[in-house]
Amino acid sequence: MNRYPPKSRYLFLGDYVDRGQHSVETICLLFAYKLKFPDSIFLLRGNHEDSQLNRVYGSTDECKRKYNMKVWKTFVDCFNYMPVAAMISYNVFCCHGGLSPDLLKISQVDLIRRPCPIPEEGLTCNLLWADPEKNISGASWIFPADVAERFCRENDIDLVCRAHQVVEDGYEFFANRKLITVFLHPITTSSLMDVLECF
């Protein structure tokens, strides 16, 4: 771990923009890495990779201030093509938000058509916005522990990995360790690396 691509592969779980004053630089760096190392860098869409939220949380204004609206519209076009879920080693399902009552089989994710804006409800919305029962944001479906456990059992996977919320120590397990929420920043990164070594 902690090696540069292509020696290591990296999966990012979204929300690259609207997080401070350097959204443009952050997304440009990640897109550049994806272009240079397409088999080593994987970028999932988060709920903030959305034109409506960008207007509210500042990355639209940041982009207009530093460049122009054409650049921002290009970012939005890219966001609409980003995948919303990924698998790690066939046993860890990853998304930005959480599970959905519409998601019974992982293969359903392959049927999500792109490009698409983020809908207000349904599978794509939940994969970007849903929260486990104890972390209620109110924007999407709230799923109890048994839903995560059943999803893992019925899809023969070990874990659902999500982001979307700040959690102490950079990670928090839920549903008898069948779901993990991760939130990385410099203070929490080392403790999360200890957890990931278990998988």
UniProtKB/TrEMBL annotation:
<comment type="similarity">
    <text>Belongs to the PPP phosphatase family.</text>
</comment>
<protein>
    <recommendedName>
        <fullName>Serine/threonine-protein phosphatase</fullName>
        <ecNumber>3.1.3.16</ecNumber>
    </recommendedName>
</protein>
<dbReference type="InterPro" id="IPR029052">
    <property type="entry name" value="Metallo-depent_PP-like"/>
</dbReference>
<keyword id="KW-0479">Metal-binding</keyword>
<dbReference type="GO" id="GO:0005634">
    <property type="term" value="C:nucleus"/>
</dbReference>
<dbReference type="InterPro" id="IPR004843">
    <property type="entry name" value="Calcineurin-like_PHP"/>
</dbReference>
<dbReference type="InterPro" id="IPR050341">
    <property type="entry name" value="PP1_catalytic_subunit"/>
</dbReference>
<dbReference type="GO" id="GO:0005737">
    <property type="term" value="C:cytoplasm"/>
</dbReference>
<keyword id="KW-0378">Hydrolase</keyword>
<dbReference type="Pfam" id="PF00149">
    <property type="entry name" value="Metallophos"/>
</dbReference>
<dbReference type="InterPro" id="IPR006186">
    <property type="entry name" value="Ser/Thr-sp_prot-phosphatase"/>
</dbReference>
<dbReference type="GO" id="GO:0004722">
    <property type="term" value="F:protein serine/threonine phosphatase activity"/>
</dbReference>
<keyword id="KW-0464">Manganese</keyword>
<feature type="domain" description="Serine/threonine specific protein phosphatases">
    <location>
        <begin position="44"/>
        <end position="49"/>
    </location>
</feature>
<dbReference type="GO" id="GO:0046872">
    <property type="term" value="F:metal ion binding"/>
</dbReference>
<keyword id="KW-0904">Protein phosphatase</keyword>
